[in-house]
Design a protein that fits this description.
heterodimer; A: 264 residues; alpha/beta; Rossmann fold; eight-stranded mixed β-sheet; globular; B: 66 residues; mainly beta; Ubiquitin-like (UB roll); five-stranded mixed β-sheet; 5 strands; 32% strand
């Protein structure tokens, strides 16, 4: 461990060299190297996370650059996974990177998440968000859900299989929205800094989970409104009738939802 | 009567239903989840579920970008 490099973390109450050791042996999967994934990956790399998994099947577009800070104008038309990996190596060569140049689907998601301690959802569509929620509930993997649109963002942390139940995304939204009922980012827009704020809150939750400090956003949905500059946490109760994590869950195996994209 | 919507005190008609409230607020029911006193209201109950004074509502939007 390079104690000088991480000295400002190590001197934090609740962190210390023990915390840094945990960070360096932690395996974090970030789904999507876009608006949420970019800040999350950047800061997790800076913190010295042992293994960073990154999934993305998109290429860099010019309209991505304001908020997808892993990528530069030189990377336009190239796979995001390539520039994401390059950037992590530049930031911190001690971090191992495992790339998945594919979209998570019902057939591969459980295999991918199996190798990680905690998952950050930086995906840009409801099909992936619901699939990840269900996969993490079934696979018993901690998940930090995040979403952004316009001037707003949401974060919730789900830790399945703990003694006290942890509400999942379907405890709030039992079913995905029907196509065409909810605007996507390319239609509705997204303020670049909102993606930065939310992605970094997700990374903060992952770090807290790894070093086991503080209170996670379990059974709480954080909602952020940049216009009023308000953060609120909404208490969410685990739903006994939840189709994913309830007493008799309907969702026992995974299936792909129709794509409802919110393209960044 | 007074209810709390998304943390703010609001005046609404006595005994208004969840669906009428959403209509009044110009919110599409399909685009949100409604939590009433810490319980998520099933969409099929929006018509019959009515509000009482002091009820605490959270109207939670689908936010799916990344």
């Amino acid at each position: 461990m390079n104690t000088e490099q991480y000295s400002r973390h190590i001197r934090l109450p609740g962190f210390g060299t023990e915390g840094q050791k945990k960070i360096e042996s932690a395996r974090v999967l970030v789904v999507g190297a876009g608006g949420l994934g970019s800040p999350a990956i950047t800061y997790l790399a800076g913190a010295g996370v042992g293994l960073l998994g990154i999934t993305d099947d998109d290429t860099v577009e010019l309209s991505n650059l304001p908020r997808q800070i892993l990528h530069t104008s030189d990377n336009v038309d190239q796979p995001k996974i390539t520039s994401a990996e390059q950037r992590v190596r530049q930031l911190n060569s001690a971090v191992k990177v495992k790339t998945y140049p594919q979209r998570l689907k019902a057939e591969n998601v459980l295999t991918v998440i199996k190798d990680f301690d905690i998952i950050i959802d930086g995906s840009d569509n409801f099909a992936t968000k619901f699939l990840l929620n269900d996969a993490c509930v079934i696979g018993g993997k901690p998940l930090v859900h995040g979403g952004v649109l316009r001037y707003n963002g949401q974060v919730m942390t789900i830790v399945p299989n703990q003694k006290s139940r942890s509400a999942c995304y379907r405890c709030i939204f039992p079913e995905p929205p029907q196509a065409g009922t909810v605007p996507n980012c390319s239609e509705a827009g997204i303020l670049n800094t909102v993606a930065g704020v939310i992605g970094l809150i997700q990374a903060t939750e992952a770090i807290k989970f790894i070093i086991n400090v503080g209170d996670l956003l379990i059974n709480r949905l954080l909602v952020f409104d940049a216009l009023s500059m308000n953060f609120r946490t909404i208490e969410i109760k685990p739903d006994a009738t939840c189709p994913a994590c309830g007493k008799n869950p309907r969702i026992k195996t995974l299936s792909d939802l129709k794509e409802i994209e919110c393209k960044g | 009567m007074e209810v709390i919507i998304n943390g703010k005190s609001e005046q609404v008609s006595d005994g208004i239903s969840v669906s009428k409230l959403l209509e009044h607020l110009k919110i599409k029911p399909v685009a949100v989840a409604v939590e009433l006193n810490l319980e998520i209201v099933p969409k099929s109950d929006y018509n019959k579920r009515t509000l009482k004074m002091g009820d605490k509502l959270e109207i939670i939007s689908f936010v799916g970008g990344g």
